[in-house]
Amino acid sequence: MLEIGTLTGGPLPGAGQRPYFEGMGKLSYERHCAEIINQTDLLVSALDGADLGVQVPSCPDWTVNQLLRHVGHAHRWTDEMIREKLPEVDFSRSMSLDVTAYAGETAAELGPWLSEGAASLASALQAVEPDEMIATLGGHPGPRLWSRRMMQETVIHRWDAVNALGVPFELDPAVAADNVAEWTRFALPFAFLRRPAETAALVGPGNTVHLHATDFDCELVIDLTGPMPAVREGHEKAAVAVRGPVVELVLTVYRRRPVEGLEVFGDHDRLDRLLASVRF
Prior knowledge:
Elements: H1 19-22, H2 29-45, E1 55-56, E2 59-63, H3 64-84, H4 107-126, H5 142-165, H6 173-194, H7 196-199, E3 208-213, E4 219-223, E5 230-233, E6 240-244, H8 246-253, E7 263-266, H9 268-277
């Protein structure tokens, strides 16, 4: 999970503008809530008979059962903030990064715990207005932001778990497109706020990156010519473009798979530097 509790700097770009979270990806608030449950169910279904003590290659500090505790605690933390209608995010309540003590747990123990947490979170989100100013982050309404963030958190960590267990991974292209959009509108600006010295090297005249899904309507241009990244939809010539199936684009931007195997046009090093800087 992005360590957003350590952020410094100003508000997330577009604060107070509802289209910031709805305009790209096009999944509704209701779909985000439903997918928190759906993605958790898919995760739980992959655990039957598995050894949850194996290490997770993409999260090497954790075993699978620790990864699952991370996901479940993230759900419960968000649930608590929404139900209590906290005015702002309270990072001190999160237990999602302190999971190293968990060991020897089974799917029979963790599966129901994960499902219960996901269902409770979805219920809490559905009981409030999407744009209610509770659990806000970067000036954005918490219900809308966290419904999407927790859905995508579950998607990516589902991949982490099934990859560690050798189980096939499938993802609805519409969910994948929403995930790519969220990465550009959430992880990307936060990287610039968290790592200004590192990301400053990405900024300059003509610095643009085009993400192009070949199997779904998802094309995004990342404009790095100003002090903070700007993102727009559409097909444009850019300094570097990467093309591939939308699910593979998700795994690439989250650094779960290498760029190799996708089509890259232009400055390959620019793309590598961007992905290295925007990391979870």
